[in-house]
Automatic annotation (TrEMBL):
Name listed for the protein in its UniProt record: FAD-dependent oxidoreductase domain-containing protein 1
Function: Required for the assembly of the mitochondrial membrane respiratory chain NADH dehydrogenase (Complex I). Involved in mid-late stages of complex I assembly.
Keyword Amino-acid biosynthesis appears in the UniProt entry: no
Record membrane topology: Single-pass membrane protein
Keyword Transmembrane: yes
Lineage of the species this protein comes from: Eukaryota, Metazoa, Chordata, Craniata, Vertebrata
Amino acid sequence: MEQGAKVALLSPEQLKKKFPWINTQDVALASYGLENEGWFDPWLLLSALRRKALSMGVLHCHGEVTGFNYVTQEMVTSDGDPVNFRRIHEVIVQAQNSLETQPVECMAVVNAAGAWSSKVAEMIGIGCGSPGTFQEFKLPVEPRKRYIYMFHCPNGPGLDCPLLIDSSGAYFRREGLGGNYIGGLSPLEEEEPDHSNLDVDHEYFQQKVWPLLAYRVPVFESLKVKSSWAGYYDYNTYDQNGVIGTHPLVPNFYFACGFSGHGLQQAPAVGRAVAELLHNGQFTTLDLTSFDFQRFIFQQPILERNIV
Ligand SMILES: Cc1cc2nc3c(=O)[nH]c(=O)nc-3n(C[C@H](O)[C@H](O)[C@H](O)COP(=O)(O)OP(=O)(O)OC[C@H]3O[C@@H](n4cnc5c(N)ncnc54)[C@H](O)[C@@H]3O)c2cc1C
């Protein structure tokens, strides 16, 4: 939700009056966004931002980061413990369609590798230190497979249909006009699917998602699934929130990852904050200090409860 968005709290009676197609049984209170909310096409947003950046002179190079070249500086803490600081001066990149790697000189690196951010962090030794050292702390971000199902229901809710997130966790929204919708449900921790491929589990919709949707919106009993796809949440297992800022032992290595399923809506603000941190040496417009890596070391979680 955007800052300053207006929200109405609706009683079950008010909810039923506004959206007669909702089953309000077992609803005590609902929240309904009145302004500054909506949805957008993620690929379109990404393409637009990329094109704008390119038009402003950003050089785009497509390849896979496979490692880093760095210098190490050994220091000793006031307790006499040795600490190794690292400074990256080259990123090793394997260009697309090439077997060769190439070092690319850099002043700073932003780790925005989504679900694979932890793997990239390990390339500079983060999470690979011996027990009792700062380097021991891993970036707690891992891939978690999530399904989206697109379904058709000719008599389903119309133009006034908002993005609906049920208290069960199931959600859906209208997809254009013509009775099409997209929706899904995150699995329970013990149901996490294998993430080594992006196959969709169709039974999961039949067994878990559909009953919840049809309970809340009875007309969905007659829906038909038309298509589906799977993607990865960049899931932060520690507190389900983004990791933003530098690493205490690798000061030119910045994080912008771990958004756990809400990264799209935060992306413009995070991009700006990280750009300001790089450029000004500190957060300027938004102070996101509490989201930095040190919270894992000092055990200061910022728990996100609203994971959909
Ligand atoms: C099904 C689904 C529904 C979602 N719904 C929402 C929603 O409603 N609202 C919302 O805000 N968010 C949503 N999200 C989450 C959102 O998509 C992510 O948080 C967001 O895409 C993260 O963006 P990112 O740029 O950090 O990472 P990504 O978009 O994952 O990009 C990471 C990039 O890094 C690249 N990469 C990885 N490793 C390397 C390497 N070694 N070298 C070079 N490149 C590398 C990858 O190829 C990829 O291109 C959803 C996600 C899924 C899967």
